[in-house]
Design brief:
alpha/beta, Rossmann fold, 5-stranded parallel β-sheet, 11 helices, about 10% strand
Length: about 230
């Protein structure tokens, strides 16, 4: 099974996920999270070897949507293109392969690997067929089922969290633009979720990002530990 968190910066994805990991470990639930390999990398050489290992799992069908998004982001100057955006899609491909080998394995991603096509909504080139085909034909046959955890947090709250975490203070005008931009992206992601919600074996759970993250993580734990997901 594959668990994918989704939400904007400051929405609480990582905080809720960290509590979730603790809950699952306390109950002896076996899982992998996207950065578990980092704990095994106690030096730079080890980290580099892991990255090269992930690169060996490049599969065009799996990775191409992320690389195309990277190209669009660079072209439109929406975001920078770091090296992580090269190897992480290959890491995603690696984890899909691991689940295919072991159907009882649960892999959790707390960074957003769901809404790679949200920018197309903004640019009016969105294709629901592309999303349906990617998940129905490529991802689901490998993982059987997907749980998408959406951290729904008001943009002004997300801004406060982000500014505190990054130790950045924006002017009133800049803050307004930051919040407005996040609201636009939120609407775009919702269109993606609407398409995914209609696919079999995909469940979407919306969390109130203002709620206690421990409470939110407990709710997700109960879902993963339920008979429906354990069987």
């Amino acid at each position: 099974m594959l668990v994918l968190f989704s939400g904007s910066r400051g929405s609480g994805k990582s905080t809720i996920a960290n509590y979730l990991y603790s809950n699952l470990e306390d109950r002896g639930f076996e899982y992998l999270h996207q950065s578990k390999w980092r704990k095994k990398s106690n030096n730079l050489i080890s980290k580099i070897l892991w990255i090269f290992y992930f690169l060996a799992f490049f599969r065009f069908q799996v990775c191409s949507v992320f690389f195309k998004r990277l190209y669009r982001d660079i072209r439109s100057r929406r975001a920078r293109g770091g090296f992580a955006r090269i190897y992480m899609p290959c890491m995603f491909s690696y984890h899909l392969n691991q689940i295919k080998k072991n159907s009882k394995l649960c892999v959790i991603y707390d960074s957003d690997f769901v809404t790679w096509s949200a920018d197309k909504v903004i640019d009016n080139i969105f294709s629901s067929t592309e999303i349906k085909n990617y998940y129905s034909s490529i991802v689901l046959p490998k993982v059987n089922r997907i749980l998408i955890v959406v951290c729904d947090t008001p943009s002004d709250v997300a801004y406060k969290r982000w500014s505190q975490r990054e130790n950045k203070v924006l002017s009133l005008k800049e803050r307004g633009k930051w919040i407005e931009k996040r609201m636009v992206w939120k609407k775009a992601r919702e269109k993606v979720f609407l398409v995914l919600s209609k696919l079999p074996n995909i469940r979407i759970v919306k969390l109130n990002g203002i709620e206690d993250p421990k409470k939110n993580s407990t709710y997700i734990s109960k879902i993963l530990l339920s008979k429906e997901y354990l069987n």
